[in-house]
From TrEMBL:
Belongs to the MoeA family. It comes from Pseudodesulfovibrio aespoeensis (strain ATCC 700646 / DSM 10631 / Aspo-2). Catalyzes the insertion of molybdate into adenylated molybdopterin with the concomitant release of AMP. It comes from the Bacteria. CDD domains: MoeA (cd00887). GO terms for biological process: Mo-molybdopterin cofactor biosynthetic process. GO terms for molecular function: metal ion binding; molybdopterin molybdotransferase activity. Keywords: Magnesium, Metal-binding, Molybdenum, Molybdenum cofactor biosynthesis, Transferase. It catalyses: adenylyl-molybdopterin + molybdate = Mo-molybdopterin + AMP + H(+). This is Molybdopterin molybdenumtransferase. Its EC number is 2.10.1.1. Pathway: Cofactor biosynthesis; molybdopterin biosynthesis.
């Protein structure tokens, strides 16, 4: 597909049409934290399964103590104890009560629980509950209570069938814990996509190798910082298996790499997207069987970015300057990664208020690196532009990028769209 620079939104439509999450797999809740639910996940049972006590105390029939007062206390005989682990319970009959510990099921016949500090114990030391449950004891009750007092109804914490996680949402540790408690054994989730990042350029060295930082020679290559940044951004987006490498300016080696039949779902190259005789990323992709989705973008920086696909692999060809890699990742690759993970698309774009004036030259969209901070309930963006923020320093301080129209003059307090991996 050959055409001129297209808008970011048009490019995203093409990308998201081509991106498909992996087929769901069934995992236990303990193994699905951080993955994306492929269907709505609902509670498998009530919690609690039966009405239970929320206090250490005594399970009673509210009708038995309806006439209780300080002058005329009601005396109830304690027949047994119910603990959180107790199974089938003996019923509470008229004139009796059962001692019940927090989390213990309310016995049949009882409909309320009296806190142990609200009763007077007969036949035991009043400073502590009776510990010998084989010896009958009685309690005195001086105030009536209504049915349901200190009782959590069945399903009072979560009801069978309540939605725990919606399809397209990332499963949090707390959601997984609720799944375990509601007796869910397996969850349909999308596996994480894998990625490979390749820095193109004979002037580059692999930063993972010992000699990468050897700058003693005037002809020494410099470390491929784009590998660190791109792989780190992918990891921040939830990917785990990310391969990296450096490839010199050799078209045949690039074609061989891209022709591999077992490429991951995401391949990112940096460099080689210009128009010189050494910029062969596009040609190499086409020779390896990739079909172009767009050949250039109407954004700055990143105009020379391209994207292509083959089977289940998306290829992103990014320019070499790190600031352009950072901006293009947030503008184009981030939404595609979300789709590949199975995440639902945001209903509204993330916005922030500028705290500094900024203007742009005519043409397309401009992506200005920015730092972000919360001020009360509002997010504030500080553009990192101008002589006080040279490109490498701006990238080190950046949390994302603000999207600006061409030929715009924005004032402090104006609202702008923000692209970031933080939220």
């Amino acid at each position: 597909m050959k055409d001129g620079p297209i808008s970011r939104r048009k490019a995203l439509r093409r990308l998201l049409d081509a991106a498909r999450p992996s087929e769901p797999v069934a995992l236990s809740p303990m193994d699905c934290v951080g993955l994306v639910a492929a269907a709505d996940i609902s509670a498998g049972c009530h919690v609690p399964e039966r009405a239970s006590s929320v206090r250490d105390g005594y399970a009673v029939r509210a009708a038995d103590i309806a006439g209780s007062s300080g002058g005329r206390p009601t005396v109830l005989r304690v027949t047994h104890t119910v603990r959180a682990e107790s199974g089938a319970n003996r019923p509470v009959e008229a004139g009796t009560t059962a001692r019940v510990l927090t989390g213990g099921m309310v016995p049949p016949g009882a409909d309320a629980v009296l806190a142990q500090e609200d009763v007077t114990i007969q036949g035991c030391a009043k400073s502590a509950p009776c510990r010998n449950q084989d010896i009958p004891e009685c309690i005195e009750v001086r105030e009536p209570v209504r049915p349901g007092w200190f009782v959590r109804a069945a399903g009072g914490e979560i009801a069978h069938g309540d939605t725990i996680v919606c399809q397209g949402s990332e499963i949090t540790p707390q959601a997984a814990a609720v799944m375990i408690r509601t007796r869910i054994e397996s969850v349909p989730v999308h596996p994480r996509p894998c990625a490979r990042v390749v820095a193109l350029g004979s002037e580059l060295s692999d930063p993972t190798l010992a000699h990468a930082h050897d700058s003693g020679s005037p002809t020494a290559r410099f470390p491929a910082d784009n590998l660190v940044m791109a792989s780190g951004l992918l990891a921040r987006c939830g990917l785990e298996r990310i391969e990296t490498g450096v490839l010199p300016d050799n078209e045949e080696r690039l074609v061989a790499l891209l022709s591999s039949p077992d490429l991951p779902e995401i391949v990112i190259t940096t460099g080689g997207t210009g128009r010189s005789e050494r910029d062969f990323a596009r040609v190499g992709a086409r020779r390896a069987g990739f079909v172009t989705l767009f050949d250039s973008l109407d954004i700055r920086p990143g105009r020379n970015m391209f994207a292509a696909h083959r089977d289940n692999t998306l290829l992103f060809g990014l320019p070499g300057p790190p600031a352009a890699v950072f901006a293009c990742f947030h503008a184009v690759i981030l939404p595609a990664v979300r789709r590949l993970r199975g995440l639902a698309e945001p209903v509204q774009p993330l916005t922030a208020r500028l705290d500094t004036a900024i203007s742009t030259r005519p043409g397309g969209e401009w992506l200005a690196l920015c730092s972000l901070k919360r001020v009360g309930a509002c997010m504030t963006a500080t553009p990192l532009t101008g002589p006080d923020s040279p490109p490498m320093l701006a990238m080190a301080l950046a949390h994302g990028a603000v999207v600006l129209a061409g030929n715009a003059a924005m004032l402090p307090g104006d609202e702008v769209e923000v692209l970031t991996t933080l939220y």
